[in-house]
Amino acid sequence: MDSNGIAEKQCLEDDKDLQFLRSGGNLLKVRSGSWKKPRYYKLQDDCKTLWHESKKTLKSKQTFSVEDIEEVRTGRQTDSLKKHTEESVEGRAFSILFKSQQKSLDLIASSEEEAKKWVDGLEKVISNMKNLTPQKKTEHWIYSCMRKADQNFDNKISQKELKSFLRDINIEVDEDYAAMLFQKCDKSQCGFLEGEEIEHFYEILTQREEIEVIYGAYAKTDGLMSAADLLNFLLNEQREDASPNDALQLIEKYELDENAKAQQQMTKDGFLMYLQQPEGLIFNPAHKSVYQDMNQPLNHYFISSSHNTYLLEDQLKGPSSTEAYIKALLKGCRCVELDCWDGSDGEPVIYHGYTLTSKILFKDVIKAIKEYAFKTSEYPVILSLENHCSVEQQKIMAQHLISILDSALVTKPLRDQMPTCLPSPEELKGRFIVKGKRLDKLEDMFSEESKTAEEDSVTEEEDDEGDQEDQEKKSTKTKSLKLAKELSDMVIYCKSVHFRGFEDSRDKQSFYEMASFKEGEAVNLAEESANDYIHHNTDKLSRIYPAGLRTDSSNYNPVPLWNAGCQIVALNFQTPCPEMDLNQGLFLQNGRSGYILKPSFLRDQDTKFDPITLPEGPWLKNKSLHLMVISAQQLPKVSKRKSSIVDPIVKVQIYGVPADTTVVETQYIQNNGFNPMWNENFQFNVRVPDLALVRFLIEDYDSTSNNEFIGQYTLPFNSLKNGYHHVPLLTEKGDHLSSAGLFVHIMVVDAE
Question: Where does the EF-hand domain start and stop, copy by copy (predicted)?
């Protein structure tokens, strides 16, 4: 296939929106109140790259890939557009948000109709790219690299250009091998490759020797795989409970050759296609949707939670932004933090108090939360209020919460009588719960006396949790906080209280009262009093937050806190790190709902479970994981230098109870990020699989300094699939590396 064929297949020639994008046009680019300049944008012929005019004389890159776009957002929804444009341009404004740290592109079209064409067109292009098969993505990427290597634009590849191309796709080969490869494809012996010779070169390059071996072992029907052969593979290798009809459905779905499909057979290409689709990935597709019981009390779930959600960077001088809330919510976060302070003009603001972080309006944050709360998950969002406001501005906070969130805000118990336990995620679908201080007990809502007696708008209340965090930044005495009744009355199921020991909690703490624990205190309790902590968390919520000394927004390991049954283990979502990988790995399951049902031994009030001592009990399931790391495909470069080729090494990490926590690593492969092969075997014994996570990490090996991150993927141990599977890879920020992957064989059996 020639390079133009790729573009023709991806661009729908008769699509008016795409034709409009390919013609291009002027848009007003907005950076600030004074910087608003017209720039020309157009979609290039490959239908995956946008070109834009730049006035910077030294700017070398004037394009960006559609794959780098996270979202196209209509209207004045970014902080920049809200701040620097008038409401009158609402219908003409739109923003392109990127997966990387790159700033959003804020644009204004000349008319609402034109803005709609840009947005519709871009969304179609993004959708087209997402729906490409893995083979098409590989094909597209390789041909685009070939075009780049074809320096004189003659649609031919010379031997010198071939060597350059191989470096671009992350392979370093010696001169002899490059010459041999070139001569093998140069059948016309004219000194360059073109047409069918380039296609032959592509076939050699993308040959998967390991797939051929597996396919050959099961393709017993005239060199092809019949439905019976495929069923044999599914039963014996993949350990699936498959039927003949399942095999036929896979052939119908993924076989590319119509003749083979008519014979109910699968070719090698169809087999590879199946292994690269959801059925062939390592994550159990049954766990992709909500599969757990969602009708238990909130405290029976791990809840995806963010700390200082408003920050995009560090804790001292970085920007606060509504965008940070949007990003966290789209990642499935279900508990966000709002650090509220008095603002000018009577409007409360959110920022990190006593620091130089920028300020955003409380009402803008609530609007953004309402807009994005339920796009990824329909289950409830907890608004964790750190309230430092005066009574007057607390009343304004209450007004904004009611006017913006309306009936979605929980302002009274779900039933007419005093509850005895927390409601379930299912009962609270689409609702917002306020976590904060309350003047009285929830029981008082059902007292006749309280309905007439509580006339005062404020009272003295000790500021507990907020000042615990602030004490690490300033050395002043804990002050009393005057609390507005209007705000107090919104706190129904998550009343903030001090923790004064497990005995005190057992005697005095109600189910709707919850304590927040500093990371250090929580880790000590989880290590030294694990079983007491677990009992505490069987009927109460606990929130953990990072130490104030983490001014760089770094994170702590959440696993020991989950092992102790803590539900709201709040992390700095803005910081790419292994700890966030673990968080996203745990919450990858159950439909990315942000709620994971805790194992039964963390919900049982009589449980004897202790993650440190591991006494005998039903939690000891003793599984043996046999893992073969086979190969990787199309790993990205970690350095922009053309001559830099990665030396990939794979690390496999088990996180869980201390007895299960371990790491192994392969040898490194020199100078090959395109198709490295390891074929290395490992075995792990996992005692408590219900609490285990598996992390696959690929790094660029360096003998003289720290290895550099290439990609990773984390998932629950119980979501592993047996057999041959591809492992998708994510960037440090959690975005998919579209063509890259790891290929492994998994077998989980009962340990002897």
Answer: 137-172
Q: What is the pTM of this model?
A: 0.88
More confident residue, 266 or 449: 266
Q: What pLDDT score does 677 carry?
A: 97
Assign domain 5-131 to a CATH class: mainly beta
Q: Rounded to whole angstroms, how far apart are CA atoms 350 and 321?
A: 9
Calpha distance 594→304 (Å, rounded): 5
Our answer to whether residue 287 is catalytic in this structure is no
Residues for the chain: how many in total?
752
Binding residues: 29-56, 308, 337, 339, 386, 435, 437, 516, 543, 645, 647, 671, 700-702
Binding-site annotation, residues for substrate: 29-56, 435, 437, 516, 543
Q: What is the pLDDT of residues 221-257, one digit of tens each?
A: 999 999 999 999 999 999 999 999 999 999 999 998 9
CATH node for 298-443+488-602: 3.20.20.190
Among all chains, which residue has been given the structure tokens 């189910």? 511
307 is catalytic: yes
Domains of the chain, residue spans: 5-131, 135-206, 209-280, 298-443+488-602, 623-750
Tell me how crowded residue 101 is: count the other CB atoms within 10 A of its CB.
9
CATH architecture of structural domain 623-750: Sandwich (2.60)
Distance CA 164, CA 207 (A): 20
How many other C-beta atoms lie within 10 A of the C-beta of residue 83?
11
Q: Tell me which of 352, 536, 725, 745 is the catalytic residue.
A: 352
Q: Which of 435, 425, 374, 426 is nearest to 401 (CA)?
A: 435
**Cα–Cα dist 581/653, whole Å:** 12
pLDDT digits over 299-340, tens only? 999 999 999 999 888 788 778 899 999 999 999 999 999 999
Fold of 209-280: Recoverin; domain 1 (1.10.238)
pLDDT bracket for residue 467 (50, 70, 90): very low
Residue 274 pLDDT level (bands cut at 50, 70, 90) = very high
Do the domains 5-131 and 623-750 sit in the same CATH topology, yes or no? no
- Using DSSP's 3-state secondary structure scheme, residue 342 falls into coil
The CATH number of 135-206 is 1.10.238.10
Catalytic residue (choose from 300, 307, 535, 726): 307
> Do the bridges between strand 381-387 and strand 335-341 make them parallel or antiparallel, or are there none, so unpaired?
parallel
Q: Is the dihedral of CA 660, 666, 671, 675 positive or negative?
A: negative
**Burial degree of 453 (CB within 10 A; 0-12, 13-18, 19+):** exposed
Q: Could you tell me which residues are annotated as the binding site for Ca(2+)?
A: 308, 337, 339, 386, 645, 647, 671, 700-702
Considering only residues 642 and 200, tell me which one the structure prediction assigns the higher pLDDT.
200
Q: Can you tell me whether residue 287 is helix, strand or coil?
A: helix
